[in-house]
Specification:
By secondary structure, the protein is of the alpha/beta class. Helices cover 31% and strands 19% of the residues. Strands 5-4-6-7 form a four-stranded mixed beta sheet, covered by helices on one side. The protein has a two-stranded antiparallel sheet with strand order 1-2. It has a two-stranded parallel sheet with strand order 3-8.
Amino acid sequence: MKNAMAFTGRNGKTQTALAEINVTPLVDVMLVLLVIFMVTAPILQTGIQVNLPRTREAQPNEATPQALIITIDKEGAIYLSGRNERQAINVNDLQKLLNERLAKSDNRRVYLRGDGDTPYRIIAYVLDQAKRAQANVSLVTEPITKK
């Protein structure tokens, strides 16, 4: 026999309590959370907004959360993932910072996200610093879309 709580209604009849859990509100909350995480996940991955150059053979931003990402915005400010991402780093400290970060990891891959309007001399200098730190640099681009 099922254990259920009994009580008497207004009309004097004995009734049992409904022992089922209503899951509809729980499903609603879970769907809202799912949508929120789907929208915010791409924003959390990069942090700094850059206009990536477009190429036919695109190198997608396949970086894992532990991956080392160097971002250069259109003003030439350089950001390194894992540090205070909203604070630009000094370009002269880049090699030292890369050496420190790469020494802690067995992966030597570094992703370079540069704005399409960034002067080439800045990108070349950052590439030189990364190569001196013996990093394997991959340039992140976006695919050309057909319209």
